[in-house]
Amino acid sequence: MKRILTLTAFVLSLITAAGQKGLNIGIYFSDHYKDLTAASVYIEGSDLTPYNLSLFRSITLTAETTPKKSWQLLEQRVMEDAKLATKKEVAMIGTQLYYGFYALPPLDGKTNRYIFYRNNLLKPEAKPQEIMLVYIEGKASSAELKKIFK
Questions:
Q1: Domain residue ranges in the chain
Q2: What global pTM score does this model have?
């Protein structure tokens, strides 16, 4: 019974990471980083249909839960994945990434993929003091997403 539960957990972790397959940020949506996240959201299916989306994943990190070296590594991984982007919107504070919105090449030629990243820890006056990483899949265009997240 224990082996079946372990195998089931392993298969489920592979399924939930599939959307980010091949991306450096994919690890942040796995159980490995679960303890660092202050909040995690996973939505798939009919709840996203009105938005023309099929998958929404997000994590939120805070200074209290995430050592500085960890969020600097996250920034590096986001920037590595950004090299694949076909469209980008980026804001830097000094040499660090404050905001990034990236449209990645579509999966299967049909499904658009996006990464959104914002590091409010770089602005002490910003509320809330957190880092947000979002991965999105669907048919929605970047213009549609910007309207949704305004």
A1: 2-148
A2: 0.83
